[in-house]
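Progress note, sequence design subtask.
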């Protein structure tokens, strides 16, 4: 199993998941020059990361990779079983992280780091939202997340799951960008997640 990655990108999420599972995998460090090569673009049509190769399966999109691995290895119990009512909430937060939570963080990031490369987002979209507007957007979309974590350590049935990895991966960006206050419950949630031994191991492997 190979995971193609660039540090501090969405590739952190499946790498963290693999460490949680204790599955053997090879990390392939991708350079920006490599992403432009036709060989790599056969793996990811947009020349981005992450990409996972698992036997005959080649898959991109961090949340999709995480969902695939979680279902392939159910014995690690990182998602509710398909017949559990909690499975619906697992999917809810998994999609929420990518579709609802990530956009304001991404827009804030491009405002704070205007020279950050992005292969797909048009310039007028990248810079069409100010950092203040992105913060307000972020505060609105995180309200249900704060409510869900008000009396829980984790998002789904108060048990750590892949939904926490994908959601926490987005919030980790927000925290590093200064979008979270020290006393914010989401900061406490992020701190709880990054203290997990698997996350620490994932960080150590890319240094």
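Output:
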């Amino acid at each position: 199993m190979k995971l193609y990655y660039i540090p501090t990108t969405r590739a952190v999420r499946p790498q963290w998941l693999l460490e949680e599972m204790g599955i053997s995998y090879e990390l392939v460090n991708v350079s920006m020059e490599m992403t432009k090569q036709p060989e790599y673009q056969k793996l990811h049509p947009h020349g981005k990361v992450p990409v996972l190769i698992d036997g005959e399966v080649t898959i991109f999109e961090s949340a999709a990779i995480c969902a695939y691995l979680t279902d392939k290895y159910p014995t690690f119990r990182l998602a509710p079983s398909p017949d559990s009512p909690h499975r619906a909430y697992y999917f809810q937060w998994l999609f929420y992280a990518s579709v609802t939570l990530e956009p304001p963080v991404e827009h804030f990031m491009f405002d704070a780091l205007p020279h950050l490369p992005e292969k797909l987002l048009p310039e007028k979209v990248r810079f069409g939202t100010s950092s203040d507007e992105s913060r307000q957007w972020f505060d609105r979309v995180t309200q249900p997340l704060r409510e869900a974590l008000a009396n829980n350590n984790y998002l789904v049935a108060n048990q750590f799951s892949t939904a926490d990895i994908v959601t926490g991966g987005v919030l980790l960006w927000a925290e590093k960008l200064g979008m979270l206050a020290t006393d914010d419950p989401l900061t406490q949630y992020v701190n709880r997640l990054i203290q997990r031994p698997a996350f620490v191991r994932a960080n150590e492997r890319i240094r």
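The longest strand covers residues 2-5. Work on this subtask will continue into the next period as scheduled.
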